Every structure is written in C-alpha cells, then in structure tokens.
Amino acid sequence: MTGTATLPRSGSTGRATLLGLAALALAWEAGARLLSGSFVLAAPSEITAWIATHPGLLARALGTTLANATAGFLAGNLAAIALAAAALLWPGGRRLVTGFALLVFCLPLVATGPILRVLLGPGDGPEIVLAALAVYYTTLVPLLVGLNAAPAAWFDLVRSYGRGRLAELTAIRARASLPYLFAGLQIAAPAALLGAMVGEFTGAERGMGVLTIRYMRALDVPAIWALATAAAAVSILAYAAIGRLARALLHESPPVILAPPPDTRATRGTLPALLHALAVLTLALLLWWGAMAAFGLNPFFAKRPGDVLAALVWAPDAAETRATLATALGETARAVLPGYLAGLGLGAALAVLLTLAPVLSAVAMPLAVTLRSVPIVTTAPLIVLLLGRGAAGAIALVAVMVFFPTLVACLYGLRQAPGQILDVFESYAAGPLPRLLHVRLPAMLPAFFAAARMSVPAAILAVTVVEWLATGRGLGSLMALSASLSDYDMLWSAVALVALLSVLCHAAVAALERRVLSVYAAEQVPA
Amino acid sequence: MPADPPPRAPAITCTGLAKTFPGGREVLLPTDLALAGGRTTALVGPSGCGKSTLLRLIAGLERPSAGTVRIGGLTPAEMRRRAGLALAFQDPSLLPWRTVRGNIRLARRLARLPADPERIEDLIRLVGLEGFGDTRPAALSGGMRQRAAIARAMATDPQLLLLDEPFGAVDELTRRQLARDLPRLWEPRGTTTLLVTHSVVEAVLLADRVLVLSPRPARIVTDIAVPLPRPRDPAITATAAFHALTDRVSAALADGAARAHPPLAAQ
Fold it and tell me: If you measure CA to CA, which chain B residue comes closest to A425?
C-alpha cells in the first residue's frame, strides 16, 4: 500500500545494520586518530589491542558482571511476572501495583547500592538486587499491556463456553502477552548489565564496574573504551539473541514500544488521582517500615520512615539538611532538565528528518534499535572523558540516555500513520510537508509521549550516576559523599527525595500526555 | 491554485492494465476498460478479488505492472495535481483530531483550492450533519462519519469520484439512507463515479453499469448495463426490473466463483 511504511525484512535489516556499524567504526577510527594525544577517544584499533593484551582480566571481570546481571535479570523478570499476576488476580489493585512498582523503580540506584551493601553485607547481593531493580519495571509495563492485548470478543468466546478467568488466562492472555513479555526481556538484557555495573561502581570488589573506576582514576583511555565496548557488545548480543528467540518461538518480532498511553478511565479528576497517590505512598511507607522491623536491621544505617522525617523536619540540624538537599537538587535539575529536553527534542527531530528521507530511515531504524540496547549509563566514563567533569558531561549523558529510546519510539510512531489517510492526502497530490504536519506528527505523538514518560526515571538514573562518578555536584555527588561519610540520615533522605520527585515528574509527563492525546489520538485514549 | 482545471466528466480508459504484487502474486490480469464520462460504474466481485486494486490503480495510488490508465486523457498523477479526483473508503479515514468541518476544509487546502466556507457549510448540510460541524469524529456514529468522509470527498468538486465500499462498515438501515441521499450529491454534477462494492443490490441501485470481476486474479467476466431511470428511490429495489438485474449480477458472480472454485464433491 502506498504510504504505509512497513519494517524492512530481516535480511535487508541485517545488512543495513552492518553497513551502518561499519560506517560508524570507520568514522570512529578516523576521529580517534585525529584526537590522538588528547586522552578522550580510543580508536577501534587501540581497543582491540587492549582486549588482545588483557584477555584474562577482561574475561574474569565480564564473567563476574554477567553472572550478577543474569541473576538479577532472572530475579527482576520473575518479580515482574509475579506483580503482573497479582494485578491480574486483583484488577482493582492494578494501579496500586503499578504505582508502587514505579516508585521502587525510581529509587536512585547509586544510593540504593551502598545502602544494600551495608544491609546485605559482603558478597554480590547488591549488584544482583540492583540488576533486578533495573529490569523489573520495563518488563512489568509491557506485560500488563500484553495480558490485555486481545479483542473483547475473544474473552466473550471463552465465557460463552462457560469458562472463567483461569481459562481466559491460559487460552488467551498468556499467549497474547508473550510478544510483550519478550519486548520487556529484550530491554531487560542491557538494563540488567547496567544495574550490575552501577552496583559495582558503588563499591564492589570485582567486575567490569570496578575495573572501569580503576582505569578512570588512572586515565587509561584505551582500557575505559575497551570495557565500555565489551559491555555494549554483550548487551547488543543479548538483546539480539532474545529477539531471535522471540521470532523463533512466536514467529513475530516483539513490539518496539513498551509503554502505551496511560489509562484515563481510572484517573478521572484530581481527587481520585490524589487518593491513588496517597495509597501508593502509604503502601510504600508500610513496606519500608515493615521490612526494617522484620529483619531487625540496625537503625544506625537502616533508617525508618520516621528517621527520615525527623532528619528533614525536627532534628536539630534539619534546616541544614534541607538546605544541603535543596542546593544539590538545584544542581541536579540544571543538568537533568536541559539533558532530558535535548534528548527528547533531538530524538524526535532526527526521527522526523529520517522519515522525510525514507532511504535513510530504513538504515537508521535497526541502527537506533541496536544503539538503544547499549547500556548508556555504563558509557558515563566515556562521556566524562569526552566532555570533562563539568555540567556539559552530565547534560550530555542524560541527553544520550533519553535520545535513543525517543528516536526508536518516534521512528516507530511516524510509521503508524494510517495508510488510508495518507492515500487521501496523495489523492490531492499533497506534498511531504502537509503529510508530516497533518498525519505523521500526530500519529507520532503517542509513541513520543510513551518515550518521554519512560525516560523520566532513566534520565534521573543517568544524572545521579554521572554526578556520583565524576562531576562532584548535585544529588548523585551528595549521595556518594553521604555514603562515604556514613551520613545515613542524609543518604536515606536523598533517596526518598529523588524517588518522590521522579514519580511526580513521571506523573506530570503522564498528565500532559493525557491532555495532548485526548485531542490528537482520540481513539487511543477512551473519551 | 492547481495549474489547470481538470477535464469535466472525464471518461476512463484502461489499456492492458495489469498488477502483479512483489512475490509474483497476480491480482489483476491484463484488462482493457472504457468507462463513459459522467456515469456511475460499479465493480462487483468476491472479497479479495482485486477490485480495490483496480480502483487504486485508476487513482494512481498503485503502480501498474503493465498497461496505462487515462482519465479524460490525463494520467492519474496529472488528474490528482489538478484536484480532479477524490476518494472515500470503507473506513472513513477522518483525522481524529480535526472536527467534521476541519476535515472537510483540509481537503480543499490539500488540493490547493481557496477556502470556501459556504460550500463547506452546504456540504455539511447536504450530508445531513447540520449541527455537527464542530464535532470530532470520535463522537459521531459510523454512518455519520461516513457522511463526513463523503462530504470531504465532494469538497473539492472532483470530476472523478472513487468509492471503495463506502457503505461497507455501516448498518443496513444507515446504508439504505446513504445509498438514497449521497448520490444526490454527485449525480447532478455529472461526476464520473467508480464504486467498488460486494453488495449486488447497492451496485444495481447506484450504477449505470455493473462490471462483475472473477475471483483473484481479477478479470472482468460480465458487463451489465443498468437502464433504470434516475433519480432512483430505494423503493425501486422492490420492482421486477430491479430483481431481474440483480439476478443477472448474482448469476455472473456465482458463475465466476464456480469456475475458480469447483463445488465440493457430495458427501
């Protein structure tokens, strides 16, 4: 059909990806040679040489990190499946489950790491938990969509034979959710590696993250690039392998978009939304307090909700704590806001440009999907090398983190323009610009907002990691400092603040999304 | 403004027109076709036979594997550039974020025609959507959306109107109303109209000529003239003359189907 863009078949996709990667490698080598001596960019040849001379070291580190990432991948995805099952068994509680899941997903991993280290003691526990925390939400969200991704008539069919919810689950929901589950698992692969490495950044003894920190201190540029390349390569392979498995098992590719527009039916009005937020907060506080009490953890490092409240409100140094947090928050905001907006804007703009040149779009889509599977946060050291320890590095890392998912989502969204509407436009010999303005851009909006929403926690993760590792400013740095000084009141307060603000930002984006989509995608948001 | 006005009441000539999709799937066998200008022709055939493909080839939305299409002597692309043709589908394909009026107005803008608010209000009234000009498609019933889509198609005063199952997605009652009301929009203007449908009754009710297509790959198996007087009221469907025509069309359809798929052996 004219006008409807379909994904290129896998053969040409593979070739296009390889061509794109080859071009990238060439440009990279040339750029590195141009910049040699400036300690920023290692050429592919230098990286290969480093890997060839340190195979044992790299293999041991990769082995440790992969083992932790795999354990976290399994734990996180099992948790996602359990949560989805809970939401399915108790439909009324679905929003409570997803709200709580989001809140936990918004915990800043860089601070969760050291807290877990003191809670769990020596061992790989923190890395595994962080890997699990990094993956479960991006599996839960598509899984919940998939479990309901069937026409109502199919459920009526099951009911017409006198069967109930169990039969619905086994006959329809389970199968309908598989492509979405695989989509979540695909994204989970790089995320698990990212979680494990962030865990290692925050004080492990072995692994890729530990090596990265060591070589950053030594300013060993080829080593840093080699480690990042190895991590990226493993991620891409895992992502591709899961995609291949999905195609082999399901005879279809997993969907590209993970988070559909929010359901408006349950959130009509301000009061229900507030009540919902209050319920989620109460549940979180109860679980927090309950866990601390149940395990009888030492209150010196295992702070309860009351301790944090005291530290922020009525402790003698509360005003000072609040001022410190506010200063750090301001610094973080100055990095994360421009980065987030730049990532969104550039991702959408590039997608639009590529759509105007369809030949480029066919090459760009697989390349963008591949680069999306790079755990961007693990490239933080590279961005610090390239842009220095100032604000530019932090902004750039956040932008890159947001850029790739946005680009992929927008490329996908632009292709969702209804073919028949494009035919109508063609019947009036309308040019590419009217098609873009009237059909493709509005069709892109749902995917764009899905990316914008899911990028909120990602942006905050990115900014806190880079602040922790490099810039010495903002909440990330404050958390690093508090952890090393054993100022657990400050550390827990920062964690609670970051999680709360992340959820609020997420809710703000979702509210804007609902408002825009109620006009621009009426059929997708129930009126 | 389009460069030149399109030819009035254009005749359609297809010469050796054929379509094979990539992968070798033959959809339309080489077809010669001459349709008189200013008349309504119905293409009837079983589902998936390729009648929509023929329509899309004539609109120039699909590139033919062989052969040519001329509309009043022009290529489909030239006709489109002169805002000479308009389309309506089974799916109304309205832009969900524009009102009824906004959707109709957009067609004129896309065709580089001056905005003509009076004409747009006329159309809204003519298709029976008075009072719904500011309504978005989501708030309309299926039949109302279809009326809006037809109004949009008429907004540019096309000389060639291509209708692909335009009443396919609405209920029987609405369908009858639409079949009664909407031809009044294009009949007096002498618009050349090509209608794809799988409803035999609709084809005979609306058309001056019915072409019956075989199952895929499509070829024209029968050409039936419909000499019923105009304007036609749906009451005409109860007459013997009407039934004789629908019987002929149905027989031609059954015949084409039987040749493509011989009946199953008796059990």
Answer: B110
A438 lies within 8 A of chain B by CB: yes
Cis omega (within 30 of 0) for bond into B217 = yes
The backbone torsions φ and ψ at residue B25, rounded to the nearest 5 degrees and listed phi first, read -75, 115
Asked if A61 and A207 count as a contact pair (C-beta separation under 8 A), the reply is: yes
Chain A neighbors of B160, CB-CB under 8 A: none
Domain membership of residue A163 (yes or no) is yes
Buried b (16+ CB within 10 A) or exposed e, B236-267: ebeeeebeebbebbeebbeebbeeeeeeeeee
Residue B87 is nearest to which of A427, A429, A519, comparing CB atoms? A427
H helices present in A357-418, as ranges: 358-372, 380-387, 391-414
Chain segment A488-503, per-residue pLDDT in tens: 888 888 888 888 888 8
For the segment A473-488, the average pLDDT, to the nearest whole number, is: 85
* Higher-scoring residue by pLDDT: A152, B84: B84
AA letter at A336: V
Output Rg (C-alpha) for chain A, integer angstroms.
23
| pLDDT average, residue stretch B89-107 | 84
Could you tell me if A219 and A309 lie in one domain? no
Q: Please, which residues 153-182 of chain B have a Cβ atom closer than 8 Å to chain A?
A: 156, 162
**CATH 2.60.40.10 at B1-84+162-267, yes or no:** no
Instruction: State how far the Cα of A435 lies from the Cα of A295, in Å rounded to an integer.
Output: 60
Of B91, B96, B111, the CB nearest to A428: B111
Does A521 contact B at CB distance below 8 Å? Answer: yes
Asked whether the predicted pLDDT for residue A256 surpasses 80, the reply is no
Q: Which residues of B touch A1 (CB under 8 A)?
A: 61
**What is the number of structural domains in chain A?**
2
Substitution target from A428, A433, A523, A524 for chain B, most B beta carbons within 10 A: A428
Contact A496, A107 (CB under 8 A): no
Which among B62, B85, B91 is the nearest to A427, CB-wise?
B85
What per-residue string of b and e applies to A170-189 under the rule 16 or more CB within 10 Å gives b? ebbbeebbbbbbbbbbbbbb
The range of the structural domain enclosing residue A365 comes to: 290-527
Q: Which of residues 98-117 of B touch A (CB under 8 A)?
A: 106-107, 109-111
| In a shared domain, residues A169 and A223 | yes
- Look at residue A17 in the predicted model and tell me its pLDDT: 67
pLDDT over 50 (residue B146): yes
A518 touches B at CB < 8 Å: no
| Same domain membership, residue A380 and residue A321 | yes
Cβ-based contacts under 8 A for chains A and B: 65
Average pLDDT of chain A, as a whole number: 80
Residues B151-162: what's their mean pLDDT? Answer: 90
Is B57 touching A (CB cutoff 8 A)?
no
The first and second tokens of residue B267, run together, are 């059990």
| Statement to judge: residues A251 and A297 lie in one domain | no
Q: Which pLDDT does position A468 carry in this prediction?
A: 82
CA separation for the pair A2, A363 (Å, rounded) = 20
Q: Which residue has the tokens 């991620």?
A: A235
Is residue A17 situated within a structural domain?
no
Please answer whether residues B51 and B213 qualify as being in contact, where contact means their C-beta atoms are separated by less than 8 angstroms.
yes
Instruction: Identify the residue among B95, B161, B165 best suited for mutation to test binding to A, counting A beta carbons within 10 A and taking the highest.
Output: B95
Q: If you measure CA to CA, which chain A residue comes closest to B61?
A: A2
pLDDT attached to residue A38: 65
pLDDT tens-place string over residues A289-308: 888 778 777 777 778 888 88
What is the length of chain B? 267
- CATH 3.40.50.300 positions along chain B are 1-84+162-267
Nearest 5°: the CA angle A194, A198, A203 is 150
Which of B25, B63, B85, B93 to mutate: most A Cβ within 10 Å? B93
Is the Cβ pair A520, B107 closer than 8 Å?
no
Q: What is the mean pLDDT of residues B227-242?
A: 88
